[in-house]
Amino acid sequence: MTIRTAIHSSGDLAAIRALYWQLDTHAVQSQPQHFRRGERSDEFLLGLIEGENSDFLLAELDGEIAGFSQVSLKWTSDIPVLVPCKFGYLNDFVVREDLRGQKIGTALMAASKAWARARGGEYLRLSVLPDNLGAQRFYARHGLLPQMLTMEAALSDK
Predict the structure, then answer these.
(1) Which of 53, 63, 85, 117 has the fewest CB atoms found within 10 Å of its own CB?
(2) Are strands 64-75 and 54-61 parallel, antiparallel or unpaired?
(3) In this structure, are residues 55 and 36 in contact, taking their beta carbons and an 8 Å threshold?
(4) Are 92 and 85 in contact (CB under 8 A)?
(5) Rounded to an integer, what is the distance from CA 148 to the centroid of its chain?
(6) What is the pLDDT of residue 158?
(7) Contact 69, 109 (CB under 8 A)
(8) Residue 21 and residue 57 in contact, taking contact as beta carbons nearer than 8 Å
(9) What are the phi and psi torsion angles at 102 (to 5°)?
């Protein structure tokens, strides 16, 4: 298995889209009030691939894309009470369902941490759906611990 950054190629874009379909399936089922089916455009994906502060890290196994980590570099807001810091943010993370349990996620997580560290990041952060307990256990095994809990209340009768 190898980990590499995505490039502007039809093969990488198609593999990323297929993995997003799998990732989005859980989000749509879990929170249909927030998520719906949709395709990410070439422009959107290429913006992340070619962006100065973002990348797709692709796990390649036997010549096929087995998973990805979409990482970005971010900074804390300029609010006086916040300690300023630069951090890596794991926007999206997915391993093909049929290939789970083969340490692909572990390799992607290590590469994500290294990507953020190499850019001066002090932390790696992410958000995870509250019912995705398997992902939460995976992230905890890799040293990610809860820091904030986002809560919301619907304000309409829809």
Answers:
(1) 63
(2) antiparallel
(3) no
(4) no
(5) 18
(6) 62
(7) yes
(8) no
(9) -115, 20
What is the DSSP secondary-structure string of the chain? -EEEE--S-HHHHHHHHHHHHHHHHHHHHH-TTT----PPPHHHHHHHHH-TTEEEEEEEETTEEEEEEEEEEEE--S-TTSPP-EEEEEEEEEE-GGGTTSSHHHHHHHHHHHHHHHTT-S-EEE---TT-HHHHHHHHHTT------------S--
* 66 backbone dihedrals φ, ψ, rounded to 5°: -100, -15
| C-alpha angle 105-110-113 in degrees, rounded to nearest 5 | 125
**HSE on the CB side for 155, CA within 13 Å?**
1
